[in-house]
């Protein structure tokens, strides 16, 4: 009886401590800024729970640690039954779970998972102690090891309890199903019944106390993710992957208390605070981050940990203040340190290219980019503190509608081509209102000399295929991608409004662009402002023209091509097939995949507005990527993005490797093969003046752009 009372008291104290901590954590989340997200797409949410949480898909992308975690996770699920059995045994000798508690296969499963989890723990310790991967740099490794020892203790005591129960003849399962427990039971065969009964009590208490201690400890440690990760995945953004968090901006409505973006930890949304509580410190994000991998101070893992540490450091004081009333809470918030540079250094915030590698790698769906951009928004719009070289790009965007600061009237200069080329004749959309496709040229395509050639070749390909298309010329402005990612949301919204109005005015149906950033912004972000347009990237469109026989590559390509996937195509929008299909269609072209390709591509360094910032620390990202391309021993580095084109061509120049490798857009490579006409037959397209309507398949390709897990219905 005394034992039962003692266990009841210990369990109740533990549950009270656990409940109190959970209440405090929920209280801290409620201090975060509003985020109206709700899990609306229930099918998608169910799939994510099945695939990401239960299936551990993201973790399994890393085979050894993935399998190790898979066994530990499922071990906890299955062995929950042994925990019930252990507590039940304290209250009733020979306790078993009703209905399934004597079922042999359950006993076998328990035996299997005890061994599997012990194996997982040994593997985890070996990874941490022997392999010591760089992704753990900065993580709380000691805390992680305590937890591993605790889990090991739980497994060991499960085995001991089962073994003693077998030796006492009170084990609920047929021992033929539980060979491991049965083998351990042989250790106790020589003891008297009284000793074995005493050992049973000791092991049961030992087991129960570790579990109860574990239950409280996890809520104060990085293993809080055991409790929060299911919720974090449930509340993962339903936005398309490439779309940034919307920001309501009405300068006239704003009061003195309103802040732009995130100035203090409590300005982050509750979801961003939940992200911090959910971080497992596994470092998968860090290991993929191009900034960290080239020696910059930015680590997405440390950034999330710093946010969480700041919240927890002031958590008690904030909760107490909240209990005293709104005024006291405001005073407590006022005393918090600014997020930048006190919690996260400014440099860290500006190093990010918004490439998305961290978000993709994170096994618990943490959204690092949203937090980074919220801090940028505060630095730019609230503090006016940003790298000085950004100033001219932002000013140019505001005054001329392009970061180069070129007069809008010169947007069509690319049509003239080089001195040896004939000027193209392409109508303005107002002269060709029935054009099936609007060719969105983009600022780089209109003003950068390297990319003007790409624009020219893309247009020539469209003409050759008989596509009915038009351009906007001076009516086109920057989509606002760099402004938004730099944190200058007001400039972005001004440009977005302007472009959406023009596109609507001309009743544009489909937009074709050679720029992944324009593609992403118009397709994924303009819907936030009422602009719903069908957009396709030129690599996908050209692949379709080739497939349909409208373009016929004829000239042999004597050499090897490799392709650099732009982050805003491959990772943010799942657009990566078209470029490879075009290359495959070129006679004699041999193709080599870069080591990091597709979803795992490595950023060229220009995204997130970094194109307009100096890269002062570490190795330059474009050089890192150029070195990888050169290592492929290909002759041509194909690209599908004007910014990658500039960055990688600069990389080749800096490596003095222009004789070994040339950087060319997919359009340029295709044009060279298509313009060659062995039969003297100039017409490869069908010359259909009605243009090239997007077929069902093409629409499917556009849909692919939003990704299989996205819900964009643009
Ligand atoms: S978005 Fe890319 S650069 Fe930014 S933190 Fe994540 S991995 Fe690093
Ligand atoms: S943010 Fe995600 S990937 Fe990065 S350390 Fe935390 S859990 Fe791991």
Structure write-up:
There is one protein chain. It contains 31 helices and eight strands. The chain has 714 residues and is mainly α. The site of one iron/sulfur cluster has 15 residues, from helix 12, helix 17 and helix 18.
Which descriptors apply to this entry?
8 strands, 55% helix, 714 residues, four-stranded parallel sheet, binds iron/sulfur cluster, Fumarate Reductase Iron-sulfur Protein, Chain B, domain 2, mainly alpha, disordered C terminus
How are the SSEs ordered, and which strands pair?
Layout: H1 2-30, H2 42-54, H3 57-60, H4 63-91, H5 104-131, H6 141-168, H7 179-185, H8 193-218, H9 225-234, H10 270-278, H11 284-288, H12 290-293, H13 300-324, H14 326-335, H15 339-343, H16 346-350, H17 357-361, H18 368-382, H19 390-400, E1 437-440, H20 443-447, H21 449-464, E2 469-470, H22 481-486, H23 489-505, E3 510-513, H24 516-525, E4 534-537, H25 538-547, E5 560-563, H26 567-573, H27 577-585, E6 590-592, H28 621-631, E7 636-639, H29 642-654, E8 662-665, H30 666-674, H31 696-705
Parallel strand pairs: 1-2, 1-3, 3-4, 5-6, 5-7, 7-8
The chain binds iron/sulfur cluster (2 copies).
One iron/sulfur cluster binds next to helix 11 and helix 13.
